[in-house]
Amino acid sequence: MRVALTGATGLIGSALVRRLRERGDDVVALTRDAGRARSSLGDGVELHEWSDPERQPPPASALERADAVVHLLGEPVAQRWTADAKRRIRDSRVLGTRSLVAGLAALPADLRPACLVSQSATGYYGPRGDEQLDERAPAGADFLAEVTVAWEREAAEAPVARVAIPRTGVVLAASGGALAQMLPPFRLGVGGPVAGGRQYVPWIHLADVVGAIVHLLEDVRAAGPVNLSAPNPVTNAELSRSLGRVLHRPAVLPVPGTALRLLYGEMASIVLTGQRVIPARLEEWGYGFSYAELEPALRDVLAPGEQRG
Ligand SMILES: NC(=O)c1ccc[n+]([C@@H]2O[C@H](COP(=O)([O-])OP(=O)(O)OC[C@H]3O[C@@H](n4cnc5c(N)ncnc54)[C@H](OP(=O)(O)O)[C@@H]3O)[C@@H](O)[C@H]2O)c1
């Protein structure tokens, strides 16, 4: 299969590139900086520069004759949400997807990929307490939910046979992401449940994000929104306890929500609220999770020197 990726240099993208190359697929990566991408992705990946995704469609040569496109790019969400950061978080996704769709529409129909897998996030559902959320649940209304709704709407316009929209949860990986940011206090033995700890964390191991995206590329039934989160979501308090056990550290010091709001402002809502997401469609299609339970997933990503993506 020939697969074109945006965001190929990121946490998810670089693991997906590795997996596709192991399978023998041809990988084409679109990036804002080909020099940096070459050193992070190595040889064997065809690189195309797409310097301004918000304003220009990607080069046709990157998309034509690809069997599928996986669209992952986006400004990092885990940063202080100043007005400018919020604009970048929104525009990189909404306008970037619009540009990609324009690039696909400009291709002659016989050179157009059949499938677009366009990233989304469980933030689509907004803060929802302990409500169980499958793909039919309605969208939330906070900042991330509004961005995500607009992001998905752009992707759905793609003139391809099939658009799959993975609503991805909190990715557990050794090489970065949410866990890397949470770990320092836990390693010092001063970690603990955040703001009471009752909010759900829709976690998923990086290996399953990659496995599920490969499934979406191959399964012709895969279209529309698909929750990418483990079948056993846990509360923030359960996540803290598991982290404590895996790291052999106490994890009982409660972290007050007000402290996080002071430190991180509005962005703290990412950890202060959550979603109890159920991967209903992946389960219906028989996707076999490598990590369905949290503790083995944590043991794997925290094992020194190991990273399976
Ligand atoms: N990691 C998670 O837990 C998680 C959960 C749910 C959803 N997601 C979503 O999945 C996607 C990939 O996640 P990730 O963790 O792999 O992200 P990441 O590591 O931050 O990488 C994203 C990539 O997007 C490109 N990029 C960054 N800022 C950009 C901007 N302002 N405009 C255009 N391109 C930009 C970069 O590629 P170049 O520098 O090569 O252009 C970067 O490598 C993101 O959209 C993210 O929101 C992630």
Overview of the molecule:
The chain has 309 residues and is of the alpha/beta class. It has one domain: Rossmann fold, CATH 3.40.50.720. The chain has helices spanning 11-23, 34-41, 60-63, 83-105, 143-156, 177-187, 206-218, 236-247, 257-264, 269-272, 280-284, 294-302; strands at residues 2-6, 26-31, 46-49, 68-71, 115-118, 120-121, 132-133, 162-168, 170-172, 200-201, 203-205, 224-228, 234-235, 276-277. Strands 1, 2, 3, 4, 5, 6, 8 and 12 form an 8-stranded parallel β-sheet that branches. Strands 7-14 form a two-stranded parallel ribbon. The protein has a two-stranded parallel sheet with strand order 9-11. The protein is globular and about 60 Å long. The protein starts with a strand and ends in a 7-residue tail after the last helix. 47% of the residues are buried.
By DSSP, the count of extended strands is 14
Give me the number of helical elements: 12
Query: Which architecture per CATH?
Result: 3-Layer(aba) Sandwich
Look at the helices and sheets and give the structural class: alpha/beta
Would you kindly provide a brief summary of this structure?
The chain has a single domain (2-302), classed as NAD(P)-binding Rossmann-like Domain (Rossmann fold, 3-Layer(aba) Sandwich), CATH 3.40.50. It contains 12 helices and 14 strands.
Overview features:
two-stranded parallel sheet; 12 helices; 8-stranded parallel β-sheet; binds NADP nicotinamide-adenine-dinucleotide phosphate; disordered C terminus; alpha/beta; 14 strands; 309 residues; Rossmann fold
